[in-house]
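REQUEST ID: PR-0412
SUBMITTED BY: lab tech R.K.
PRIORITY: routine
TASK: structure prediction, single protein chain
INPUT:
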Amino acid sequence: MKRIVLTLFAPLVVTALIGNRPVSAQAPVCNQSQTTGCLYFPATEYTIGTEPPEVIRETAYKDMAGMLRTVKMAIRVPKAATGPLPVVIWSHGGADGKRQPDGVLVEWSRTTAKAGYLTVTIAHQPRDLASRYALCAAPPLTMDNATCDLFKHLHWDRPHDISAVINELERLNAAGEFRGQIDLLRIALGGHSAGSSGALSVAGALRNFTGTVLNMHDGRPVAFLALSPQGPGGEGFFDTDFKQPAHSWMSVDRPVLLGTGDGDNVCHRSAEPGSCVGDSPYIRRIVFERMPGGNKYQVYVHDADAFHMLFELNTAECAAKNVDQGKCDEIARWLRSTALAFLDAQLRQNPLAIQWLRSNNIETASGGVAEWLGK
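STATUS: complete
OUTPUT:
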């Protein structure tokens, strides 16, 4: 692993927010046309239509217990973009699931659609109790009801829902209003929080819920975005142990961008005094450390105001959390910039995006608040 080195150009004064105060810093002017203060943004921004900007579709498949499971999705198509279009699929976080996709991960979905990607946002449906028990009883989970009451079923459903959505995209590309518009060889998959766990499972991350190591990968997506990823010790993710060299991320060999920061902590107090349950920022960083090298990147925001839902681009929560709105908006710009550079590099092989990923422009643009690692 190494920090990526930037070749410096002529100086430019930029302003970044560190803690609660603005700080000016000398930064190089980037030798790229589509940058603002060294940030990357695509040269063309597309419109995505009037209200509603998305098309709602659904698909269904039989799960491992033989039950029919329905998956709804919102499809956003950039207007005037010529196809076939590369695809970004988004998977939401949360343990309870969503029944409708149109209000899910809206800011990330709009961001990628405006950048020229056909964007699909999934609603991972909650299950009723009978459906959950039937799922848990089927191999390879094979849990009793008491264990099943503690199991978050979406850990199993997310990667399978995603594969079903890709199957549906193949059908939509063959006939109907989306015929020939979808580039099935250029699919990226992104998720926030528990949604990133589903995305990384599809990328090949191993899970162990009940003693059996599970591989739920799908070889069709070519790149992955994991925002607020979940680390070892929970949700079926595991690290090495004595005489046990295997860990969850050893087989993730496709390009991945990870994002987290100092305020991205959901470690809640447990019954044991002085203890908590959940992922801390450092635990989230372990995911990048454990992945094998090769087109792996991490942006880490060194600011405790970068709260968990800000990595979902949910800047509407900033006022309620007493975080300066300007700071929130700027951090969201950093996240958008890194994600779009990663997507343009991996799905479009855009040379400027590739150059940007190999630089430390995001550190320059943020005055050092955003740390950039690549391997």
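NOTES: The radius of gyration is 20 Å.
REVIEWED BY: pending
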